[in-house]
Amino acid sequence: MLSLHKLRTLGTVVRLGGIRPSAEPLLRAASAVSRSVGLLEASLGTALFERKGRGMLLTPMGELAHKRFLRIAQELGAVLDEAAVGRDSLTAAALDVLYDEKRLLAVSLLAEVHHMPTVGRHLGVSQPAVSAAVARLERALGHKLFLRTARGLMPTDVGARWVRRFDRVLAELRYLEDDVAAARGTMEGVITVGTLPLVRTHVLPCAISSLLAKHPRLQVQSVESPYEQLCAGLLSGKVDFILGALRPLADKALTSEPLFADRLGLMASANHPLNRRRRIRFQDLREFPWVLSRSGTPLRESLATFFAAHGEAAPMPTVETGDLAMVRGLLLQGPMLTVLSTHQLRYEVDAGQLCVLRFPMEGLQRHIGVTTRAGAHLSVAALALLAAIRECSPAE
C-alpha cells in the first residue's frame, strides 16, 4: 500500500513549490523531504516531478498523484476539523498519526470484524500492535473510536463517521496505483462491483468477458449482498459501483445512471399446467403458489402496482428469496409461479426447462442502472468496466 506520509510530503512540495520551503512545515530536514519524494516515485515506478532551476514541476503522473492526494486531504481534513471542535488546536503530531495507512487500515478492519486478534492475523501483526495503533489514533484525535460490547468492539458514533472517511482514503490509494498503471499502458487492479440479481446472468458476465479479453491483468470482485449493505460499501469506497435495479435514492451522497428498462414476465416450469392455456386470467393465478423477492424490493413494488391497476390483490408469496438459484430450483421442481426479468432465466427458457406464460403484463418494468457515490473519481479500470457494461446492456 502506498504511504500516506509520502503523499502528504508530495502535497506540501506542490503547495510550497519546492523541497526547501517544505522542510520547515513538515518538521523535517530538506534531505529527508527529498528522500521521501524519491521513495514515493520508486514505489509508483515513475517520476512525479521535473526538477528544474525554477522549481519542481509536476509530471503528468505527478498530476494524477496530486489529484488523489487532494481528495485524501479533504477526507482527513474533515476528520481533523471535527476532532478540533471544542479544543484549542490539534498538534502537528496528530497529522503524523492520522497520515498512516496501516493505522487507518487496522481501524477499518476492526470496525468490520469487531475483534482485535482477527485484525492482527489479517495484517500479520500482534493483537497488542493493533491495540496500540487504535489507542494512538484515539489519543491524537481526542475521541474514542470503539466501545467494548457483548458483540465485540463496536464503533462509536464519531468512530463510524471517521471510519467511513478512512475507508475512502484507502480507496483513493488503490485508485492511484491503478491510475498510474493505466497511464503506463497496463490496466490492472481490482474492481469491486455490488451486484443485484438481474445483472448477474447476462449483462455483467458479458461486460467482464469483454474487458478481460483486452486487459487480462484486471480482477473483478462481485459482491452479492442486500441493497442496504451494498450502499454502505459504496459510501465507504469499498464498493466501486452498484449494478442492478434502480431504487429511489434516499441519500444525496449517491447518484444513479439508468441503462435500460427491463420488462418482466410471468414465469413457470415448461410443464406447468398454465403453459397449456392460451388465455390466463387473474383468478387462475390464485390456484398456484408463488416465489417472489422480498417485500420492499423494486420488483415487489412494481408487481403490487400492476395488480392494483387491474383491481386485483397482489399475490402473497409462499417463498420469499433474492437467490436466483433458489427461484430456479423451485420453478423446476413444481407448480410455483414467479415474475422475473426474462433475461435472468434466459438459458433455462432457451433449453426448454422454463417458460414465459401467456399472461400480458404490459407496463410492468423496472429501470436497470448503475449507482455510484456522488463526486467519486473511480479508477480508470472501474470506468472501463462501466463502459463495457453500457455496451452489453440491451437496447431500449
Note the run of SSEs as H and E.
Answer: HHHEEHHHHHEEHEHEHEEHEHEHEHEEH
- Residues in β-strands, percent: 15-25%
Mean pLDDT: 91
What is the first-to-last residue Cα distance? Answer: 43 Å
- The radius of gyration computed from the alpha-carbon positions, rounded to a whole number of angstroms, is 26 Å
Question: What characterizes the major β-sheet?
Answer: 7 strands, mixed
Task: List segments where confidence is low: pLDDT < 50 over at least 5 consecutive residues.
Answer: none
What would you call the shape? elongated
The tally of helices reads 16
Class by helix and strand content? alpha/beta
Number of strands: 13
Helix content: 40-55%
Please provide a written account of the structure.
- The chain has 396 residues and is an alpha/beta fold.
- 49% of the residues lie in helices and 18% in strands.
- Helix 1 (4-16) crosses helix 3 (30-44) and helix 6 crosses helix 7 (116-123).
In brief, what are we looking at here?
By secondary structure, the protein is of the alpha/beta class. It has helices at residues 4-16, 19-23, 30-44, 60-84, 92-98, 101-113, 116-123, 127-141, 157-183, 203-214, 227-236, 282-285, 298-309, 324-333, 346-350, 380-392, and strands at 49-52, 55-58, 146-149, 152-155, 189-195, 218-223, 241-245, 254-269, 291-292, 319-320, 338-341, 354-356, 365-373.
List the helices and strands and how they pair.
Layout (H helix, E strand, L loop, with lengths): L3 H13 L2 H5 L6 H15 L4 E4 L2 E4 L1 H25 L7 H7 L2 H13 L2 H8 L3 H15 L4 E4 L2 E4 L1 H27 L5 E7 L7 H12 L3 E6 L3 H10 L4 E5 L8 E16 L12 H4 L5 E2 L5 H12 L9 E2 L3 H10 L4 E4 L4 H5 L3 E3 L8 E9 L6 H13 L4
Parallel strand pairs: 5-6, 5-7, 9-10
Antiparallel strand pairs: 1-2, 3-4, 7-13, 8-11, 8-12, 8-13
